[in-house]
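Table 4 source record.
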Amino acid sequence: MQDSKLKVIELFAGVGGFRLGLEKANPDLFEVVWGNQWEPSRKAQDAFDCYKHNFKDGIHSNEDITTVSNDAFADLEPNLVVGGFPCQDYSVARSLSGEKGLQGKKGVLFWEIKRVIESTNPKYVLLENVDRLLKSPSSQRGRDFAVMLATFRDLDYTVEWRVINAADYGFAQRRRRVFIFAYKNGISFGQAQSNFSEDQIVYNEGFFAKPFPVEFEPYKNRISSVTLPDDIVSISETFSFGFHTAGYMKDGYVFTTQVIPKEEKAITLREILINEDDVDEKFYLSEATSEKFAYLRGPKKIERKTADGHVYQFSEGGMSPTDDLDKPGRTMLTSEGSTNRSTHIVEVNGRKRFLTPLECERLNGFDDNWTNTMSDRMRYFCMGNALVVGLIERMGHRIEEIERTNKVSEIQLELVLQS
């Protein structure tokens, strides 16, 4: 059966991890018609320039998304909206005039995602965020994620989510992120899912269970459920709930559990390193820099004082002076490559060094030299912000499977109507 194209909008695109993963899954199925990347308050738009360099087709947008009209989105007619977006305060309030609905906090980019969905009604939405989203804010645990789920409910979508550590599924980085998949109610996939219970969906039959299998038992029996209040303002003001690492929401009913991944053998740091003969001398640590890292990564207790004069002890546990080459890398941050405790330090042939920007690309599964349009500092920064491409590739294959299910159901329905 020949697949027709799925039109894709990529929001907050960075250097194009979502698009690259989808195109690796099936370039004949996924057609990114519009990709937006804009870094506010910066003259240099390094990530956008990289995106434009690596992708030739579709519209490349380097503009503040809040200035793009609803009609412009509607004209694109996307089937799938994807994007990684900042974890922010998603509180909402009734508008001053009351009858005009809700007002989300200004500058929160999730409301732009909502606006895109309202304008386009895509079949699917796939989003990525830091896993602390499930617990924010600390003063009202779970409120922000509940607001998001209620927003999807009110837009007529069913939602699945899963916190995935890339290394658990064979990739080279211990990077934990929450992925959110929403699909429009009424599509064939949703009708097929309605034959299963919530736990069957999360553990066996759902969007994430197929490409990222888990044990059929929760971690420490952590299973919960709740029905979201109808009024999203009341969720914002008073709702609190402990969301686990996986879950399902339909019509406001939430089932959530902490799943145990069926782990796959991960790629190690050693496997992603380039030939030492090709490493520029600038990446090796001087004796002074090596001493700084020995201090930063060592245990310490430091007396500190707050602004109001309160004295306290800041303590920090020690970590290995170099990263274990026979394990996957730790989570890469935007400070990678700087003199910072979180920076990876590898020791090869008795010499300590930083990871090169190319090795950081490999940690995230990008093609070699994907970001060589920018300075080393920005290459590190962009990789610290990026996602693991191979995870999206697997999700792309899953969407392809779902599309086949949809088409078979549509053909069967057509035959019934014709008979």
